[in-house]
Amino acid sequence: MNARRLIPTATLAGAVTLGLVALSACSSSDAADKKSGDKLAVTASFYPMQFLAERIGGDHVSVTTLTKPGVEPHDLELAPRQVSQLGEADVILYLKGIQPAVDEAITQSGVKNTLDATSLTTLEKHGTEVGHAHEDDHASDHPAEEEHPAGEEDALGGKDPHIWLDPVKYAEVAKGVGASLEKADPDNSAAYRKNTDALVKELGGLDTAFKQGLTDTTTKTFITTHAAFGYLAERYGLTQEAIAGIDPESEPSPARVKELETIAEHDKVGTVFFETLASDKTAKTLAADSGLKTDVLDPLEGITDKSKGDDYIEVMQSNLAALQKALGAK
């Protein structure tokens, strides 16, 4: 589905050449000139940005994604060819703090039309525990640095970058992406505006489904592999208890594991969630030790054959169904 804009290998040598290629892509007027025969070249850093580009851009854009399906986006390292290709983009869509290698490459690319999704909504700080019910009940014994391991949140001042898992915040980002595409390609602005409005409406429907589906549940607490669902938890009155912190690869301390076992018993938690792109070993070990079930709660950092849906909307609907089952929705 991703159309790749390829440039000859000979043009990829050296920073000077990259700079020249980047400068040729910088001008909005130049971009508009080539729109008469070509699609707008959009580079997305990873799946949540790709989805917005494809849905809002429609037939008027050619989308290249830096993160291939099945690759954990936090761990992405860019090949020299990918870095060089950035300079060919008319628009770059990314989310600062998720992928340090991408952030650096974008800075060096010289492309004028770059959009950081974190600038389009308000970011919040989330740790392993997010919600309203347990801040006093389950105070942690272990130091804060164990709970909040170094990772992409450092680039955002400790704030959580997983904004796309809240349909309301994702809709705010969608509006910004639509405006960016309109600016880069004014000839097709009406189409971008129409597609943006349709997607925002669809995300509004998703928000309503989550609100209604999670209002009356046996418990409001869920345990997940890493703290990706803080915004979702805040939005729908839930409490996320993460085995690890924001970083999906970090290992929990023994104190955290013991704490989670206590929380599971206290709050009648029956399920430990793992995800599709990160290891499920810790989640399954905790579940086995605590007599709990396991299920998938997908942070939607990439779509693979294992994903429970073909796109963002379908996987979020699957996430809602999984949460309803785990929380005992009535």
Write a structural description:
The chain is of the alpha/beta class and 330 residues long. Helix content is 42%, strand content 11%. The chain contains 12 helices and 9 strands. The chain has helices at residues 15-26, 28-35, 47-57, 80-86, 100-109, 144-147, 167-184, 189-213, 230-235, 254-266, 281-290, 312-327, and strands at residues 40-44, 61-65, 91-94, 114-116, 129-130, 221-224, 239-242, 271-274, 293-296. The strands form 2 sheets. Strands 5-7-6-8-9 form a 5-stranded mixed β-sheet, with helices on both faces. Strands 2-1-3-4 form a 4-stranded parallel β-sheet, sandwiched between helices. The longest helix has 25 residues, at 189-213. It is globular. The chain starts with 14 loop residues before the first helix and ends with a helix. Mean pLDDT is 81; it is low at 1-36 and 130-153.
Secondary-structure map with pairings?
Layout: H1 15-26, H2 28-35, E1 40-44, H3 47-57, E2 61-65, H4 80-86, E3 91-94, H5 100-109, E4 114-116, E5 129-130, H6 144-147, H7 167-184, H8 189-213, E6 221-224, H9 230-235, E7 239-242, H10 254-266, E8 271-274, H11 281-290, E9 293-296, H12 312-327
Helix pairs in contact: 3-7, 7-8, 8-12
Please give a handful of descriptors for the protein shown.
330 residues; alpha/beta; five-stranded mixed beta sheet; four-stranded parallel beta sheet; 9 strands; globular; disordered N terminus
